[in-house]
Amino acid sequence: MPYLKSHIRDALDLVPKYDGYNIPVWQFSRACKRAKESIPSVDEAQLVRMLRNKLSHHAYLAVEDEAHLSVNKFLETLKRTFGPGRNSNYYRGQLSNAYKKPSEHILDYIGRIKDLRIAIIEGDQAIFDRPCTEVEISSIDSFTLDSFFEGLPREYRVELRAEGYGNFSDACSKVIAIHKRLEREDSRYRGPASSRNNQAQGAAHVAAPARPSPSQGPSLINNQSAPTVGPSLVGQKICNYCKKIGHLINECHKRQYNQNRSSTNRVDNNSQPAAIPPTGNRPEASAAGTLRGPANFRPANLIDTGLGPSTSSVQTTEVYQSLSSYPLISEAP
């Protein structure tokens, strides 16, 4: 056939590339089954040959030497090689503990639940060696729906319970609508405009200068040389006495030292005796009304006249003028 049919090309577009490790084998299996359902059954063999071109590396080596006429046989070979090799009970345990992770998209969560559902169905078919009946598939779907609902976040469960759901497919479609609605509501409070406003308000708040409190006194307000308190210094201790960072005025060692020093000087001044007014180098008034400076007196020397004992002796007093006294003025005899 020189040209590929258009509906087969469209079906192949639904299948992603698979190398055995880039995506789970269950996800590749679901894509192949969707492609199979979109074409007539007579073209299934040709679809299988085209699906081999979607494989690379180890995935292609796993089916290279085998010929498959149906999609199911083709997928069984891949699952046997790249599947976890667990039975259906293991996948039931995984499904009961499944939940939507905080950073996980809702579609990824739905895909994981679908993969576990398919794994349970195929595991039961491998155990019983026959296709599952409608009752068994209905029981698996009911268990899948309950696990899917319990794994949703609280806001999803509240809205899904209020809207109601009939089966797993209906619940998935309504959860997708709920997810879009919640995303739209969250964008109202986390939009770019609100973030810009918050940034502008934050910048204005940081740029505003800090006012001194009244408890700091007028010294900091009138002191123009006080250090400017920037955004990085907000909340730090600043001394109003020495203008240093790291302590308050009541913790300032320099202030305590100066106070102790001034109190010590005050105590020394109070303990000294009253000052005696000096008598030297101070002008005094004489009997004649003239000024005379103070004089220093020395003991008198007796002069022997040779006339014998005398009842009176003349005492000559030598007066030495002080260097800093005023000059003496001669007095009349």
From TrEMBL:
A GO term, aspect molecular function: zinc ion binding
InterPro entries: Znf_CCHC_sf
Compositional bias (Low complexity): 200-210
Coiled-coil portions: none
Compositionally biased intervals (Polar residues): 213-226, 261-273
Annotated spans, Disordered: 186-226, 261-301
Family matches, as SUPFAM superfamilies: Retrovirus zinc finger-like domains
Stated name of the protein: CCHC-type domain-containing protein
